[in-house]
Amino acid sequence: MLQLKTVKFFAAALIGFTSASSCALESDRDQPIYVAADRASIDDNTGITVYTGSVDITQGSMILRGDRVELRRDAEGNVDQIISDGTPAYFEQQPSEEQAVTVATGDKLDYGVGTQLLKILGDAKVTQAGDEFTGARINYDMEKALVDAFSDSKSDKRVRMVIQPRSDSGS
User: Fold this and answer.
1) Alpha helices (H) along the chain
2) Which of 52, 2, 19, 40 is nearest to 146 (CA)?
């Protein structure tokens, strides 16, 4: 049985991740979604679209890349979940105009659009402004600015963090 060790902490306190009121640039939501891939398979009955081959998806400051990306739509036809597999799968977004871009990579990314939860599985890594979190699995709740990082004792993959010192801006 796989044993997991968990570390929980507020990312805002440690690496300056987003606040609950600003989980991405406000303008991102109003931007069109652009998709480039070698192949697309659309199933209107299930609401699932699968893109394969060097998939590149952008919407405003959000960039998602993978070898295979699956978009799932809800009953109203809105994108509800994005699952990306890659070597590595890649996610990038600027939380706000004042903050540095957040980058997440892993073997698999599972992004719940409505819940603002990004699950990073396999060689998980999240970086922002020089700060870095790595582990076997990372859950990043963008709305609550909460990161859960998990180790994998079977592969001796421990949770690791690099926290850059913050300059004192005279406050």
Assistant:
1) 11-14
2) 19
